[in-house]
Amino acid sequence: LVYVTYRQIVAVVVMLPFAYFLERKARPHLTFSLFVQIFVLSLLGSSLTLNIHFASLKYTNPTFLVAMLNTIPTLTFILAVALRVELNAAGALIMTLYKGLVMRNLWPPLIHIPRKSAAINESLKGSLLTVLSCVTWSIWYIMQAATLKRYPAPLSLTTWMCFLGAAQSAVLTVIVERNPSAWTIGFNIDLWSTIYGGIVVAGLIIYVILWCNEKKWPVFVTMFYPLCTVLVNIVAYFVLGEKLYFGSIIGAFAVIIGLYLLLWGKSEQKVSKCRNEDPECKSTTLAGK
């Protein structure tokens, strides 16, 4: 809870100058209804969902958590229009469900994290929290598209979301966390994690997501989530010393191929649409690819 609050505060401090100066003329007037919409968007993407996400991490593990994030593209697509399953999601499922041979670790873990076996009820609790966070994140992606139409200023919207998310998370922390010492962080990994999370994750990445959502559409943005599973497995193997299974390698290749087919299919769809509307634009579109 404290980590999420501090992370959002760091993001506000970093993003505010860029939002204020770079979007001074592009930023529209903030009405009350728009403020309420951004408030709900912050709740779904910056405070409530993040706290649920990290609470589920307490009862599960990073590999399981990031594997469950692969449900977000499908959930987003269901919420947007209809149901569809892509190859990259299937690859992520292979990485999660199929183990196969264990790959031998090349060296001892660079960072050692103590592991303890979770009880069945704790695992179930963590799984339910993970699913809930995936659902709220899917709603968040859908809301982004609607909010950006009314407030087409990604930097300013990111800053508002981080500011409101910090305030919401701070209120939640005061209610849940009664120990004042929890707000104290030392000059250690807690500090560096907060700075990294604030600048990169809560600031830069949210802005990039909003920018991509404005240029493309929510489902397209979320289709890259399976790459998280690939990267987490790689980092967990080389840095944390976790086991890497042959099934994870197969699934990783399926994810990469699925993403390539997705991008190739969308580009071909664009060419086909352009050709049907104006035959002369085919060469221009191909050149743009």
UniProtKB/TrEMBL annotation:
One of its GO terms (molecular function) is transmembrane transporter activity. The chain crosses the membrane at residues 6-22, 34-52, 64-83, 155-175, 195-212, 219-239, 245-265. GO terms for cellular component: plasma membrane. It is a multi-pass membrane protein. Pfam families: EamA. The keyword Translocase does not apply. Keywords: Membrane, Transmembrane, Transmembrane helix. Its main location: membrane. Residues 125-263 form the EamA domain. It is found in: Membrane. Belongs to the drug/metabolite transporter (DMT) superfamily. Plant drug/metabolite exporter (P-DME) (TC 2.A.7.4) family. This is WAT1-related protein. It comes from Glycine max. The lineage of its organism: Eukaryota, Viridiplantae, Streptophyta, Embryophyta, Tracheophyta.
